[in-house]
Structure formats: structure tokens, C-alpha cells
Amino acid sequence: MASPTQGEDSDDGMDEFMEKFKTHKYKNAFNESNWEEEFDKVPMFMKTAPEDIDPVKHPDLACLQSIIHDDERPPEEQAKSLKDEGNEYFKEKNYTKAIVSYTAGLKKNCSDSDLSAILYTNRAAAHFHLGNLRSALNDSISARKVKPCHLKAIIRGAQCCMELRNYAAALQWCDEGLKLLPTDKKLLELRSTADKRRRAAERDARKSKAKEKKKQTERGTLLAAIKERGIRLLQPKQPQHRGSDSEEDGSDDGTTAAMAELYLDGLDSQEATGAQVYLDEQGALHWPVLFLYPEHRQTDFVSAFCENSSFIDHLAVMFGEELPPWDTERKYHPQHLQVFFEDHETQHLYEVDVGTSLLKILQLPCCCVQAGTPSFIVLVKGSPFCEQYFSNKKVRLLLLKPLC
User: Fold this and answer.
1) CB-based burial of residue 392 (10 Å sphere; 0-12 exposed, 13-18 middle, 19+ buried)?
2) CATH number, domain containing residue 394
3) What is the rounded distance in angstroms from the CA atom of residue 109 to the CA atom of residue 146?
4) What pTM does this model have?
5) Total structural domains in the chain?
6) In this structure, how many other beta carbons lie within 10 angstroms of the beta carbon of residue 119?
7) pLDDT, tens digit, for every residue of 55-100?
8) How far apart are CA 133 and CA 119, in angstroms?
């Protein structure tokens, strides 16, 4: 026990300290100009935690972190601290760090099923906000394995299925949740939305199936009409496979020729021209036709050239009262023009009688349709360019002959 003299000395010292405190200003007090900044350094009042906690710069935070991650504490306490840490990151919308904290909490393998279910559900929420829908759904499933009646996990699982457009599964999640709490507004809203979207998706699927069936029927009818007319479609060259049966025995059962005639993709020119051949209600074919003018490097495109129409019908429209601006010499008059087509297999040129219908030209054995679009070369008869054009193509010029 201290002697009275010692006690008096102690009291005298306190009195001296208090007197000094009154006359000397406290140096570590918050400054009026930066009190918000100083407040943000105190862990309790921080709005966001720093990315890296430096023990020198943030000793208080480092101390708290060491408490959270103290491995000597029971797993349940450690898991709860990590859950709280994850929740703080979640509030800051730092979902990646929240996931790291929740994952660390789950690795503690605590025996508290409620806490484990919350960790899984919270991690599912963080994954959901990051767009990791599959991971969020897996965590919701894991939460229910730990605690089947965990309502938040059921709601999150239903939301994930909705975003993944698996409406049947979303309905199942909702129904299981409503068995636990029939009046839950969130589940009732989710179920209503899922049911509407499921019915809409089924309706769209039926429409798509019917549309595809109609399209296949129309293409079949179209191909039948082309085959009936004897029009050839040029099939793209397929790579030769060495050692095939047909090469070994030299046999050909006619399958290749039949496929060339019925080649579906040979009709499709929509990507290049925006149009393709079609069959009208009267049973007539309308072809997209390309006219080439090599002298001026120009083209004309007729999106629907009826097979029963003649070439002169279209030339009279294209080169009628108004001639194209690129024809500066004003010589492209219908009566002066010659039309040719090329045999793509032999590269021979043939002249077309402009009074002939498109159908009669396409039915010729030497004519075939490439990429779904018949094409024709137009030249001015007797022009210097016409003579030069054929002089540069001597082989073709020798084989050039008018059609009967």
C-alpha cells in the first residue's frame, strides 16, 4: 500500500497535468478544414477500405484484419468474421473481393449450417451481380443442400434460372419456395413472370418450327419446279477425297449429277444481292439477274426477272428514253446491243437472241446458274471496244456463235 506521501505526490502530479491540459492545445485534434478526410481514416467511419492494407499507414485496419484471420479462434468465429468482411465489400459493390471473403469463410468448414447457407447465398448474390449466372446458380444449389428451407437461396436460384432463360426450372424453384412461404411477394412475382415468359418462349418456338417447315416446303417446291424445267444449278467444287470408293471402282451411279441439280445452296444469293429466285402464285419463276457492261465497268441488277419475259423487255426499260449517265457517247440503245452468257464449265461465250424469254435461255444445255443469279454480258454491236474485247479473248471468239 502506498504511503500517504506517495499518494499526495501522485495527486499533485495529476493536478499539474490537468493544469497543463487547460493551457496547452491538443495537437492531434481534427482540423476543421480536413475533418472529413481524418474521419475516413478511422476504421469505424471509413466509406471504402483501401485495396492493400499497409500496417504502417493503416495500423488499426491491420490489427482488425489480423483479428478476423486469427486461426487460433474457433472456425465458426472465423467464418462469421469473413462473412461480415464480405458483406462490407458487397455494400461497397466490390463483388470480386466479397467473393474472396465468402470463399475463405466457406473453407473454414464450420459446423453451423445456417452460417454456411448464408455464405453460399451471399456468394451467389455477388456472382449474380458480376454476371456469373452459372456460379450463382451452383451456390444457390449448395446453400439448399446445407439448408433446404433457406428462402433467400431459393429466390436467388429462381432469379438465376430466369436470367438463363430456363423458365421451367425457375417455376420449379418458385413452387418449392412457395411451399415454405405461400405469401412471399418476391416469389409470387417471379413465378408470374417466369410463367409468362415460358408461355411466350413456347409460342415463339412453335412459330419458328412452323416457319421453318413452311420454308422447307417452299424450297422443295421451288427445286421441283427448277428440276422440271431442266435448269442446271452450278454446284461449288467439292474437294476430292483420295481413296474413295467411286475412284477405286470408277463407278458413278448418277448421284453426283442429281445432287448438282438439286443443290439447295446454289439458289441462295441473298447475301450477295439481297434477292433470290422465287415461285409466284401462277407457278412462274422470277430470277435475280445481273447485267455486266465491261466497257464501262458497270452493272445492272434486276431483282425479279420473270422467266416468261424476254431480254428486250428489260433492255427497253433500262435503255429507254433516258440513257445511263455513264454512257457519255449515247450509244447504248436497245437495237444496238448484244447480249451474251458464259458457259462456266467450258468458258465459251454464246450470244442471246434478245427477243427470247429467260426460260428458254436457262433451259439450254450450255447454260447454268451460278450462285442463284444468272448473269449476262452486254456490249454495243460493232463498237471498237466490242472488237477489242473479243480480240483479247481469241479462244472464246472462235467459239462464239449465235443461238438458234
Assistant:
1) exposed
2) 3.10.20.90
3) 12
4) 0.52
5) 2
6) 29
7) 556 666 665 666 555 667 888 999 999 999 999 999 999 999 999 9
8) 17
